[in-house]
């Protein structure tokens, strides 16, 4: 996601904890036996205790939704292919929409809502650890009326809809194990009126017209975290092409005036060139497609949705924004977070790659940008008070996470040297491709590559609420006056 100083962050717009009433889905027999094996209602992330679910490893999602613009209702089914990671008599799923029915391996299953965010499912027969099974959840409701943790994330008007947000989006439109650490393949079908277009992650594999509606199906070749899944429906200007064997798609909403559409199409067309440049530093782009979609809705941020990042209306001068979201395809999408506390790894890397782009395109060096950021903020600045290695749930998108995260990357570059630094980044994204990363794993790889002990370095940059000393061991040498 793009840093909030540059683009207004619209994610948490309501009072924390406000939730909309009226989520009365079908509720049948309760799971009450204390001896039953019940998967936990959260995956274990301390920032968002109800995110994800225990006992489940989702392998694949088959989402089939229909959206009605006039009524602003969404109905559909999600079929999850799941592997049990423990014995299960019951398990949780994350979903805000009212539930109509649940079936496990084709058999009707009891279900109820222990909270507005959770669906507790009791299959007709117990599930053994290691068993692969399917869950089919049917639902319908008005996602624009639903909230979670103070977030009202559904973006739509009567002409366009786009499912994009972070850290939560999936429960507004499909049943999920909603945490970045459980990556799965995505197969998304969206049915809308015939005149509407649909775009989603991955490759469009079919478009079927039936009467007054059309169903658009997209399939992703690589696994993704649930918050990165997206779709947009409306009327759009589209350009397609191929560069270096990589197909690209540029999509801009027709809600925007013609001059703005052309400027934003020009920006989106730069995406493939950005990919090609970043590959020089990071290695092969990790996915089978790339693109960018500019919505006409009033959204104040961009988001790194896998293979198809989404953007607000901007224009030709925002190449840095494309660099940020495309850098996330490596850092955050291909290599996802095991826990939200390590968000600096995603946002710091993407912001650092903005600095690197400037450095290689006639601007100041990333080292000079580091020193500029360092000098302009006195020790008393609140910028230094946040411990970005564990910022807390309310501050995962704080400016310090982005900028001090980027400063950490450049300081590390100074500390271990050019060759070791780029070897580190290339090995990180190659060895953990389609997998997960943590701060500890990153530090250990940095130590392995460089042959240096870096505990103190990472502690100073990530764990202290004070300004690092201007010392070489901290990757700094900013005491020279700029005049």
TrEMBL record:
Signal peptide coordinates: 1-29
Ranges for domain Aminopeptidase N-like N-terminal: 161-228
Family listed: Belongs to the peptidase M1 family.
Domain Peptidase M1 membrane alanine aminopeptidase: 319-461
Reaction(s) this enzyme catalyzes, per UniProt: Release of an N-terminal amino acid, Xaa-|-Yaa- from a peptide, amide or arylamide. Xaa is preferably Ala, but may be most amino acids including Pro (slow action). When a terminal hydrophobic residue is followed by a prolyl residue, the two may be released as an intact Xaa-Pro dipeptide
Keywords: Aminopeptidase, Hydrolase, Metal-binding, Metalloprotease, Protease, Signal, Zinc
Cofactor: Zn(2+)
Gene3D superfamilies membership: Neutral Protease Domain 2 (1.10.390.10), tricorn interacting facor f3 domain (2.60.40.1730)
Name of the protein this chain belongs to: Aminopeptidase N
Pfam families: Peptidase_M1 (PF01433), Peptidase_M1_N (PF17900)
Originating organism: Nocardioides aestuarii
Classification via PANTHER family: AMINOPEPTIDASE N, PROTEASE M1 ZINC METALLOPROTEASE
Enzyme class: hydrolase
GO molecular function: aminopeptidase activity
């Amino acid at each position: 996601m793009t840093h909030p100083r540059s683009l207004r962050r619209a994610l948490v717009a309501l009072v924390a904890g406000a939730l909309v009433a009226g989520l009365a889905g079908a509720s049948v027999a309760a799971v009450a036996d204390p001896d039953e094996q019940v998967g936990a209602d959260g995956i274990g992330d301390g920032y968002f205790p109800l995110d994800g679910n225990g006992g489940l490893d989702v392998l694949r999602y088959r989402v089939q939704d229909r959206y009605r613009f006039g009524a602003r209702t969404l109905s559909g089914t999600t079929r999850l292919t799941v592997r049990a990671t423990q014995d299960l008599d019951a398990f949780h799923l994350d979903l805000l929409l009212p539930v109509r029915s649940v079936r496990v391996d084709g058999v009707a299953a009891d279900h109820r809502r222990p909270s507005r965010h959770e669906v507790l499912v009791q299959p007709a027969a117990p599930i053994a650890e290691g068993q692969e099974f399917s869950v089919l959840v049917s639902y319908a409701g008005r996602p624009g009326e639903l909230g979670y943790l103070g977030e009202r994330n559904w973006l739509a008007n009567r002409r366009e809809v786009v499912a994009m947000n972070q850290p939560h989006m999936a429960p507004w439109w499909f049943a999920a194990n909603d945490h970045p650490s459980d990556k799965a393949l995505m197969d998304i079908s969206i049915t809308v009126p015939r005149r509407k277009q649909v775009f989603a992650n991955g490759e469009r594999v079919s478009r079927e017209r039936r009467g007054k509606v059309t169903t658009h199906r997209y399939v992703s070749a690589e696994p993704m975290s649930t918050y990165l899944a997206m779709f947009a429906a409306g009327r759009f200007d589209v350009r397609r092409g191929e560069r270096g064997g990589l197909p690209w798609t540029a999509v801009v909403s027709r809600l925007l005036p013609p001059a703005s559409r052309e400027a934003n199409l020009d920006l989106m067309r730069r995406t493939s060139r950005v990919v090609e440049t970043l590959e020089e530093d990071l290695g092969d782009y990790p996915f089978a497609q790339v693109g960018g979609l500019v919505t006409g809705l009033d959204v104040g941020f961009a988001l790194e949705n896998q293979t198809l990042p989404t953007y607000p209306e901007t224009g030709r001068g925002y190449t840095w924004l494309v660099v940020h979201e495309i850098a996330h395809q490596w850092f955050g999408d291909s290599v996802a977070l095991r826990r939200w506390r390590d968000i600096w790894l995603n946002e710091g890397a993407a912001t650092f790659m903005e600095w690197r782009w400037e450095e290689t395109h006639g601007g100041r060096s990333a080292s000079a940008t580091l020193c500029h950021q360092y000098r302009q903020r006195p020790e008393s600045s609140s910028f230094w008070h946040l411990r970005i290695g564990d910022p807390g749930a309310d501050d995962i998108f704080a400016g310090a996470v982005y900028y001090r995260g980027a400063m950490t990357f450049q300081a590390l570059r100074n500390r271990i040297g050019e060759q070791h630094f780029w070897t580190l980044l290339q090995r990180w994204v190659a060895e953990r491709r389609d997998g997960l990363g943590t701060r500890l794993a990153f530090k250990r790889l940095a130590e392995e590559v460089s042959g240096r002990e870096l505990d103190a370095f990472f502690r100073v940059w990530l764990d202290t609420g004070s300004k690092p000393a201007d010392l070489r061991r901290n990757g700094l040498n900013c005491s020279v006056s700029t005049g």
